[in-house]
Structure to design on (269 residues):
């Protein structure tokens, strides 16, 4: 795996992320996904702490939404539970602020609706002030009217708007996205939803090779990562390995936040 650089702006923990990406050597980083408000707002902060203690390099905080189109049943049900327990966008953003204090780069993941309801400028200013370094919005392509506005606001605030791509996306499309992509690529292991299966697309390595040919941004790979073998396999082609559903399963199965730290340490190379 070649050493990559990132064009992410040097704001807040962006510096920390740059240092991680540029000095990781031959070892892939690990981005752990969590849901703000699961099991509760206060306990979700402890989940983040457990992920950090377990060895996560980057923490991805999802703001729960009622229609998480890119998420599989595990994450979708977890988001629904968080919402029923009173998780709101405002409370989730407070979680982001507290998670950022664990000295790990924080990336916010959400959908377009919560952002537009709050207003793009206010939302981006809030996550920037909270200490987030990046934003993932699966249902908002760069080249739409809303996408252009979001992209411009993110750039002005020094927040990386991270593109989500899947095997099968044409090279021409990747080249278009690469013109504005910052931070890193979020590449799914296959087309579909999160956590549904650990079967990765057979053309994933070839797709990542094509992806790398479009820009020098690091490549993060996730969807269906459930075991150390999955992590080892993906680390051969990825700069960052991503997992999320596996932590929700561990939390629900064991009813203890300590299970999250244990799972994280078991997955980490």
């Amino acid at each position: 795996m070649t050493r990559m650089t990132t064009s992410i702006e040097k704001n807040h923990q962006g510096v920390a992320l740059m240092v991680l990406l540029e000095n990781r050597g031959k070892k892939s980083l690990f981005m752990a996904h969590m849901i703000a408000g699961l099991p509760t707002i206060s306990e979700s902060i402890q989940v983040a702490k457990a992920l950090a203690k377990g060895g996560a390099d980057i923490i991805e905080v999802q703001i729960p939404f009622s229609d998480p189109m890119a998420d599989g049943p595990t994450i979708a049900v977890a988001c629904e539970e968080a919402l029923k327990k009173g998780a709101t966008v405002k409370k989730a953003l407070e979680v982001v602020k507290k998670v950022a204090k664990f000295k790990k780069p924080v990336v916010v993941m959400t959908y377009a609706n919560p952002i537009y309801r709050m207003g793009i400028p206010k939302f981006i200013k809030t996550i920037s002030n909270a200490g987030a370094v990046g934003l993932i919005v699966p249902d908002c392509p760069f080249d739409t009217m809303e996408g252009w506005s979001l992209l411009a606001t993110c750039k002005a605030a020094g927040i990386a708007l991270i593109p989500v791509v899947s095997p099968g996306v044409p090279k021409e499309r990747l080249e278009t996205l690469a013109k504005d992509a910052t931070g890193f690529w979020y590449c799914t292991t296959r087309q579909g939803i999160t956590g549904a299966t650990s079967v990765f697309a057979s053309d994933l390595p070839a797709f990542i090779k094509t992806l790398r040919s479009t820009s020098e941004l690091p490549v993060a790979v996730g969807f269906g990562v459930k075991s150390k073998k999955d992590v080892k396999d993906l680390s051969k082609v990825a700069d960052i390995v991503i997992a999320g559903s596996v932590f929700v399963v561990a939390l629900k199965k064991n009813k203890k936040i300590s299970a999250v730290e244990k799972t994280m340490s078991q997955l980490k190379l």
